[in-house]
């Protein structure tokens, strides 16, 4: 598919077919390609955790006040992490990787969405990031950027319409 068409067609979709999961070999290939973006000092500090356990998915569904309920029904969820929060650029690194993941999943026929975790809280005011770390035994020096639920789509959201961003583009001076 033409790359620009692919960018237009990728939309956040939140309903997935229940019976189809990506196997371990395909997951490893997905993460390999998602890790091929630019990386400070070529350090590649981003790591992934795949969630398939129904009880853990239910716990993730309560992670924020809004926008997480459908996680209980996602076949697979990727936790995108940086492995050293003493280096603040883990956030850029994990963001680049997550954007690649969305496009790569789309290219493979999967739909996905993005749930930000950093600096978020649940309905009791507890840190979403700390809850994720505890749930999966993730070491303290890791940072959690986002969750990416994905699966074969069970809903269809139209391609992006062309939108005019010319007012946001500046040249030589603001
Ligand atoms: C930083 C960030 C946080 C987001 N948080 C959520 C979220 O908590 N729940 C959710 O369902 N979607 C979330 N999204 C997805 C957006 O809602 C979605 O990208 C936006 O509505 C544009 O739609 P599109 O991705 O289909 O173009 C988030 C996206 C980003 C980049």
UniProtKB/TrEMBL annotation:
Chain ranges of the Nitroreductase domain: 7-63, 70-151
Pfam families tied to this protein: Nitroreductase
InterPro entries: Nitroreductase, Nitroreductase-like
Keywords of this entry: Oxidoreductase
CDD domains given in the database record: nitroreductase
SUPFAM superfamilies named in the record: FMN-dependent nitroreductase-like
Tree of life domain: Bacteria
Gene3D superfamilies in alphabetical order: NADH Oxidase (3.40.109.10)
Family, similarity comment: Belongs to the nitroreductase family.
PANTHER family cross-referenced by the UniProt entry: NAD(P)H NITROREDUCTASE YDGI-RELATED (PTHR43673), NADH DEHYDROGENASE_NAD(P)H NITROREDUCTASE XCC3605-RELATED (PTHR43673:SF10)
UniProt-recorded name of the protein: Nitroreductase family protein
Native organism taxonomy: Bacteria, Bacillati, Bacillota, Tissierellia, Tissierellales
């Amino acid at each position: 598919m033409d790359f620009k068409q692919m960018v237009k067609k990728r939309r956040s979709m939140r309903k997935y077919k229940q019976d189809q999961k990506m196997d371990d070999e395909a997951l490893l290939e997905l993460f390999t390609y998602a890790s091929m973006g630019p990386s400070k000092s070529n350090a590649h500090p981003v790591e992934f955790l795949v969630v398939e356990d129904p009880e853990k998915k239910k716990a993730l569904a309560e992670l924020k006040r809004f926008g997480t309920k459908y996680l209980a029904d996602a076949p697979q969820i990727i936790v995108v992490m940086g492995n050293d929060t003493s280096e603040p650029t883990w956030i850029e690194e994990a963001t680049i990787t997550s954007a690649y993941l969305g496009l790569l999943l789309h290219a493979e026929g999967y739909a996905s969405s993005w749930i930000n975790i950093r600096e978020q809280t649940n309905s009791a005011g507890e840190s979403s990031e700390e809850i994720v770390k505890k749930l999966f035994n993730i070491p303290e020096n890791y940072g959690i950027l986002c969750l990416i639920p994905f699966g074969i789509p069970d809903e269809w959201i139209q391609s992006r319409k062309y939108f005019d961003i010319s007012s946001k583009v500046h040249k030589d001076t603001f």
